[in-house]
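Module 6 notes. Inverse folding takes a fixed backbone as the condition and produces residue identities as the prediction. Think of it as a translation problem where the source language is geometry and the target language is the twenty amino acids. Below is one complete input and output pair. Work through it position by position during the lab.
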């Protein structure tokens, strides 16, 4: 076996609406109370926000920054960490569940069967990713995954350096890694790092993928993924 597959979540294996209409509102309602009540894990989030705003930022400024970043869909790590902590409570309470397109479970199973490790790289925190794949509308898919990268252990998704770091971490040359995403900027960054990059255009989306090959679902990749 050689090669690996790396998958984006939102807009690629999961509908945008599952994140934007369900997960994000669930988190937004709770951001302020979690920070003010110093819930487990939030001191590190507050410290991370202060690291970005300045160490003297008061709690009101920290809360305002998190809410602004949330509303802008900024991918700053302290916000994404807080999202994961809040969502964990929702998943454990049965109020949230993962959602993937129907072509995703068979594709993951196929890569696993062929001995091709499949990794996730999302701006959502590793905690959020694990919860998402462990409780999907198609069951627990975590057994198909080799591991997870986010903006903390991988880096920003639009920077080639992040893709070089991940390739080194998983011990696979970039030329043998297939990256699938709905974002042209992410595909550009992966390609600049020497990865193979393929756009995924889901129903209702009109992204311009520029020079990158595009598929409508993971089944359309066929055996071409035998980078893989
Ligand atoms: C289920 S993980 C939450 C998704 C998320 O928070 C996010 O920002 C999605 O970004 P992606 O990199 O997967 O497009
Ligand atoms: Mg995406």
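Target side of the pair, the amino acids:
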């Amino acid at each position: 076996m050689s090669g690996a597959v790396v998958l984006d979540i939102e807009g690629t294996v999961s509908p945008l609406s599952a994140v934007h209409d369900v997960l994000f509102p669930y988190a937004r309602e709770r951001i302020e109370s979690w920070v003010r009540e110093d819930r487990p894990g939030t001191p590190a989030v507050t410290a991370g926000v202060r690291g970005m705003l300045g160490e003297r930022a008061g709690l009101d400024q920290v809360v305002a920054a998190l809410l602004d970043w949330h509303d802008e869909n900024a991918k700053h790590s302290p916000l994404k960490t807080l999202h994961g902590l809040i969502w964990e409570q929702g998943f454990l309470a049965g109020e949230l569940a993962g959602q993937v397109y129907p072509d995703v479970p068979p594709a993951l199973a196929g890569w696993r069967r062929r001995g091709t490790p499949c990794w996730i790289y999302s701006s959502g925190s590793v905690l959020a990713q694990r919860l998402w794949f462990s409780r999907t509308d198609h069951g627990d898919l975590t057994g198909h995954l080799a591991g997870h990268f986010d903006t903390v252990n991988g880096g920003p998704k639009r920077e080639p350096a992040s893709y070089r770091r991940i390739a080194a971490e998983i011990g696979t040359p970039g030329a043998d890694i297939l990256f699938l995403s709905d974002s042209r900027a992410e595909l550009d960054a992966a390609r600049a790092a020497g990865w193979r990059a393929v756009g995924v255009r889901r129903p209702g989306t009109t992204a311009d993928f520029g020079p990158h090959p595009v598929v409508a679902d993971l089944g359309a990749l066929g055996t071409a993924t035998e980078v893989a």
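Reference fact for the lab report: The chain has eight helices and six strands.
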